[in-house]
Specification:
Length: 140
Amino acid sequence: MFEESLEMIELELSILIRRSTSISSNRKIGNLDRSAYLLLRHIVSKGAAGVKVLAGEFKLDISTISRQAAALEQKGFLYRIPDPLDGRAYTLQITELGTMVLNEFKQARLEKITEMLKDWPDEERKVFGQLLKKFNQTFI
């Protein structure tokens, strides 16, 4: 029975990841890829952060976060705040443009998810959200 549950979870997670990625890659929703969206969401919710902190949060190499941040900086979505004690170090902060693009993208995603879950009772949506959060926290 336990094995059946794991098989179902594995399959359903694979389907969820594929479908949620396709929602985000829909050009009607915007031009943020998944990594950019998560990086901007993190900075908005937790505040300015350094590359090392972001790499730790997302379990990625510093070089990967640096490349992603550089691309977002080039688009005008992020800017660097120099560290006054260490001239080489900096934190990243979101720009007004980055906030605007993020909010548009987030709103479009929320509208899509709202449509998908419109027939679900409030209690089921709440439990689903709580279980997803609990599951995601097991990766920490």
